[in-house]
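tool=predict chain=A
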Amino acid sequence: MRPTRTRHLAAMAALTSLVLAGGVLAAAPAQAIGGCSAVAGARACWNSDRDVLTLTDTADDGAHVRVDYLVDLAEEDVVGVLENRRGPRTTERLRLGPLDLPEGKAMVWSVSVWAGDRLVEQGPVQYHTT
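tool=predict ok
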């Protein structure tokens, strides 16, 4: 059975809920944490200082790349998708700064490569902070 976008989002949401419920991210860090993740054909980075998510298509393979993300705000989470369908060696940026995200909140995301509606490869779920 092939993974679908719905199952991809459901799995990410379930994993996020388990981690957050378990208190793994309960303590706010002294400083925001950013980082990058890559799979064959895609690279994504979270810049915690600027609250910016970047997504780069790194392969000329006809696939598109995306990042599914969630910012845990306790009451109402920010959930979304950043996609890049412009082709190889192009980058999309999403600035979450205008949302005035509080410091120290969990930023949970995963980069993936898609051929049409078929998931080709998904990177590990990343846990960073705002």
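The first strand starts at residue 35 and ends at 39. The CA atoms of residues 42 and 57 lie 5 Å apart.
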